């Protein structure tokens, strides 16, 4: 067998190109542009569905704890029977003073929470808003808006409105005059928080003095509020003190009508409550799994069509001496390319949709890198599963059938 | 399975395969199982020496394609002896057959080229089986040039004519310099001129390298390239003669009629 003379002029090319496989998977995919675009749209759609469903699930959970995480404090004191943020139970303010006497506790703040009827200044319709009240001198809720309007908050009959409240609340601007609990109120500023289950429409922030103005003289059927009972007590801890030890000490020594938790444990407890007592997790997990399966079917269709269209070519490859494993790798490569290329438009569309959903609902839609990675891995697995199903078509291809 | 092989080897004593590309002894082959079992090849004895161009003719359904796919290791067979390039194929499983196939060049009626790959890339897919990475492009270009496609190396099949596509397919079959080439109606999809060109090229390359070609064809315009013509009828070898004998024994008129029947 004499060696074929090597033509000159190709040495340069072989130097430039490292030895590699002809990327048949890639060429087959990009050969038919229209089919590739349809395929990528399909994968992107499945990715989008997974992102949206997972996004809503996380948003519903994240929203429940976002207020808690924004509060300034390391340790939280609540009434023992306040199982979640919905339960309107307060504890005696003197417990907070007692706690402040312990070594290591730096400061203690009270947060008063109530639900108030807000009149939309334009439609005059009543909507319940959650009122968060505290001493404006204290850094209880250190949001940029709240800090900016600290001075204005001291004026009587004033409040700040959450500009991420639902649109039904009406215009959310400085200078609005309307009614809260059927009493006059003036909006002197705005801040950004968002809605959750306990504050379905939005939030209002006011000083503790104004809180008393609105809630101390309620009708006979309602529980009037004073500053003597606190909804959430916040403690800041001096540096050098172990949080868990301090929480343990406080729990042991304070009367048993209050519950002392670290802020993180409190947020986690709230999240766990919603996870265990609602169907959110089940519903959205089911929807996510269904999107995953829809994705598998879509990608399988794409790969199967490619294999069916190139049946004779794949059979010829087998006749030439390509093994089933070689062909398996090619189909899997196609699947992986689809996963990568389809994920990107899926992710970008999802980001836009997250933004839209966040504005429409006020829910906190966050896409953390970890969550994006999770979906990416799911997309990858989705395409691998499709590839593994589709590849059986290639493997069953009988090279003998190409003859005749 | 091993039992049948050993019993057969006593019947046809093992012969030296020196100078022989394909040696078939007592080969039987059936499709289907049980009541549906249908035997298509009966007791085939055939020896193809190296360097010979053999054309196989016969009416459709005579088992030509089955025989060629057995020789090519595309099907497993269990009865008789089938020695290809010094390896016994009877009783081999699919995985072992894949390795046999790498030493054989296949040319099909359809070119079966990937539309997404250029001529060169299609040929390179075959070179990659030999793990010759550095030289694959050079080898593909070289064989395409020998087939007169030097200026079409980077064209995709869509921009090639039927004859050019078939020549790329031939380049793909020949690039690894197989000692045995199996062709199934390689000119069926081509016009007279391209068909002629393709066959002449195959003949030239085979003669230069001493390769064996077994070609199934109904195309009597290309019979002249054959050293030998075998005729298969109803699963049995009916005649085996050289070109002159074939022409003599087949009156042109009857030959033509036979061709129509196929």
Give a structural overview.
The complex is a heterodimer of chains A (404) and B (262). With 404 residues, chain A is of the alpha+beta class. Chain A has 13 helices and eleven strands. Chain A has helices at 11-16, 24-31, 33-70, 93-100, 144-148, 150-153, 208-215, 243-253, 263-277, 280-309, 311-320, 324-361, 369-395, and strands spanning 75-79, 91-92, 105-119, 126-134, 158-162, 177-180, 183-191, 203-207, 229-230, 232-237, 258-262. Chain A has a nine-stranded mixed sheet. Chain A has a two-stranded antiparallel sheet with strand order 2-9. In chain A, strand 3 and strand 4 (126-134) form a beta hairpin. With 262 residues, chain B is of the alpha/beta class. Chain B is globular. The two termini of chain B are 36 Å apart. The relative contact order of chain B is 0.16. Chains A and B meet through helix 2 and helix 11 of A and helix 2, helix 3, helix 4 and helix 5 of B.
* Major sheet description of chain A: 9 strands, mixed
Mean pLDDT of chain A: 87
> How many β strands of chain B by DSSP?
10
Number of alpha- plus pi-helical segments of chain A: 13
C-alpha geometry of chain B: globular
- Share of residues in strands of chain A: 15-25%
The number of distinct β-strands of chain A equals: 11
* Biggest sheet character of chain B: 6 strands, mixed
The SSE order of chain B reads HEEEHEEHEHHHEHEEEHH
Helix content of chain B: 25-40%
Radius of gyration of CA atoms of chain B, rounded to a whole number: 19 Å
* Helical segment count of chain B: 9
Give the H and E element order of chain A. HHHEEHEEHHEEEEHEEHEHHHHH
How is the quaternary structure best described? heterodimer
């Amino acid at each position: 067998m004499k060696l074929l003379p090597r033509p000159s002029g190709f040495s340069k090319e072989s130097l430039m190109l490292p030895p590699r496989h002809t990327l048949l998977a890639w060429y087959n995919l990009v050969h038919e542009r229209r089919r590739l675009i349809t395929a990528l749209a399909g994968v992107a759609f499945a990715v989008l569905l997974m992102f949206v469903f997972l996004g809503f699930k996380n948003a519903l959970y994240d929203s429940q704890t976002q207020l808690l995480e924004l509060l300034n404090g390391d340790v939280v004191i609540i009434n023992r029977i306040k199982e979640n943020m919905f339960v309107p139970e307060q504890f005696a303010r003197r417990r907070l003073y007692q706690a402040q006497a312990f070594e290591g506790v730096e400061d203690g703040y009270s947060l008063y929470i109530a639900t108030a009827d807000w009149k939309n200044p334009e439609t005059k319709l009543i909507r319940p808003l959650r009122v968060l009240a505290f001493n404006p001198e204290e850094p209880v809720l250190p949001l940029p808006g709240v800090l900016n309007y600290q001075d204005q908050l001291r004026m009587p009959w004033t409040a700040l409105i959450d500009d991420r409240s639902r649109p039904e609340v009406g215009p959310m601007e400085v200078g609005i005059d309307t009614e809260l609990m059927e009493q006059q109120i003036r909006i002197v500023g705005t801040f950004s928080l968002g809605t959750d289950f306990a504050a379905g429409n939005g939030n209002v922030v006011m000083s503790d003095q104004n809180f008393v103005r609105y809630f101390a003289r309620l009708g006979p059927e309602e529980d009037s509020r004073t500053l003597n009972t606190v909804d959430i007590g916040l403690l800041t801890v001096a540096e050098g003190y172990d949080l868990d030890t301090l929480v343990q000490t406080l729990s042991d020594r304070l009367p048993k009508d209050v519950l002392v938790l670290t802020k993180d444990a409190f947020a986690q407890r709230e999240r766990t409550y919603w996870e265990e007592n609602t169907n959110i997790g089940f519903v959205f997990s089911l929807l996510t799994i269904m999107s995953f399966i829809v994705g598998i079917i879509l990608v399988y269709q794409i790969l199967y069509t490619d294999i069916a269209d190139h049946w004779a070519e794949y059979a010829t490859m087998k006749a030439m001496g390509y093994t089933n494993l070689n062909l398996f790798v090619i189909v899997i490569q196609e699947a992986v390319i689809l996963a990568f290329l389809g994920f990107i438009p899926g992710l970008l569309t999802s980001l836009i949709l997250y933004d839209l959903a966040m504005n429409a609902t006020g829910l906190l839609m966050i896409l953390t890198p970890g969550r994006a990675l999770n979906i990416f891995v799911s997309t990858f697995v989705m395409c691998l599963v499709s590839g593994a199903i589709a590849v059986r078509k290639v493997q069953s291809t009988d090279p003998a059938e190409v003859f005749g | 399975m091993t039992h049948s092989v050993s019993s057969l080897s006593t019947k046809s004593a093992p012969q030296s395969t020196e100078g022989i590309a394909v040696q078939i002894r007592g080969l039987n082959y059936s499709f289907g199982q049980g009541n549906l079992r249908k035997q298509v090849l009966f007791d085939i004895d055939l020896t193809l020496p190296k360097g010979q161009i053999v054309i196989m003719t016969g009416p459709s359904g005579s088992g030509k394609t089955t025989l060629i796919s057995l020789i090519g290791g595309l099907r497993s067979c269990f009865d008789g002896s089938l020695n290809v390039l010094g390896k016994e194929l009877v009783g081999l499983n699919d995985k072992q057959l894949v390795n046999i196939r790498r030493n054989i060049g296949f040319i099909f009626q359809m070119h079966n080229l990937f539309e997404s790959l250029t001529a060169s890339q299609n040929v390179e897919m075959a070179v990659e089986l030999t793990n010759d990475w550095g030289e694959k492009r050079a080898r593909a270009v070289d064989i395409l040039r020998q087939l007169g496609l030097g200026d079409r190396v980077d064209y995709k099949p869509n921009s090639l004519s039927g004859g050019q596509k078939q020549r790329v397919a031939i380049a793909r079959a020949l690039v690894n310099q197989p000692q045995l080439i199996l062709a199934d109606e390689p000119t069926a999809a081509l016009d007279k001129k391209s068909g002629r060109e393709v066959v002449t090229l195959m003949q030239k390359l085979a003669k230069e390298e001493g390769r064996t070609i077994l070609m199934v064809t109904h195309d009597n315009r290309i019979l002249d390239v054959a050293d030998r013509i075998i005729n298969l009828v109803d699963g049995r070898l009916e005649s085996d003669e050289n070109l002159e004998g074939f022409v003599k024994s087949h009156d042109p008129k009857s030959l033509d009629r036979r061709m129509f029947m196929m």
